[in-house]
Amino acid sequence: MKTIFILTLGFLMLAIGIASAQVIDIKPGSCPNPFNGKSKGSVPVAILGSADFDVTSVDPTTIELEGVLALEKWGIADSTQAIDNYDNCTTCFDADDPANFNCDLWDETGDEPVSGTDGLVDAYCGDGYPDLIVKFGTQALADAIGEADRDECVELRLTGLTNDGAEIEGYDSVLIRTKIK
Fold first, then answer.
1. What one-character DSSP code corresponds to residue 27?
2. Among 41, 53, 27, residue whose Cα is nearest residue 156
């Protein structure tokens, strides 16, 4: 969904396209989102789907985090849920609410794991909407973040385009675990 503001200046009309704000979650299910800039791996980021936003409308080849292009590995899964009161590195989902965890818990009798599962609370359940999960190279992100101290909270900006060219953007934070540079 692209928001358009129209300004009327006398008889001149100017339309300005504004990027649609999307909820993202760096390292879905993890809170805080630790970032080790010395790691050689990748960092997953979920663009959250909702009743109002279909993540299959996003072109994964256009997604950037702090200017770093996403790796070619991406997928669709219900990985997490939006946090209503996000404001820093430590605002997390409610870990005491069993509804926020693996849906493959024990059956209604409480005696057996649900068929096909191990019955352990070992994964985050999500919110019922598919999310687009993209990955970014850790070293490239560390370079983009630049100098950062251990335990510093750093906000990162994600940008991209939908398949029809509308801009999207979202923000989440990482907690630096190893000093960068």
1. S
2. 27
Neighbours of 179 (CB within 10 A): 13
Residue 118's pLDDT band (boundaries 50, 70, 90)? very low
Query: What domains appear along the chain, each with residue ranges and CATH number?
Result: 22-90+125-178 (2.60.40)
Residue 4 identity: I
Tally of CA atoms within 13 A in the half-sphere of 81 that contains its CB? 16
For tokens 């870990």, name the residue.
Answer: 95
Distance, in Å, from the CA atom of 153 to the CA atom of 166, rounded to the nearest integer, reads 30
DSSP secondary structure of 122-170: -SB---SS-EEEEEEEHHHHHHHH-SB-TT-EEEEEEEEEETTS-EEEE
The two three-digit tokens of residue 21, written as one number = 């704000």
Residues paired with residue 6 on neighbouring β-strands, in sequence order: 15
Tell me the whole-structure pTM to 2 decimals. 0.73
pLDDT for position 112:
53
* 101 SS3 class: strand
Asked if the model's pLDDT at residue 3 lies above 90, the reply is no
Length of the chain: 181
The one-character DSSP state at 53 is: B
Q: Which amino acid belongs to residue 41?
A: G
pLDDT in tens, 7-52: 333 333 333 445 678 888 888 877 778 899 999 999 999 998 988 9
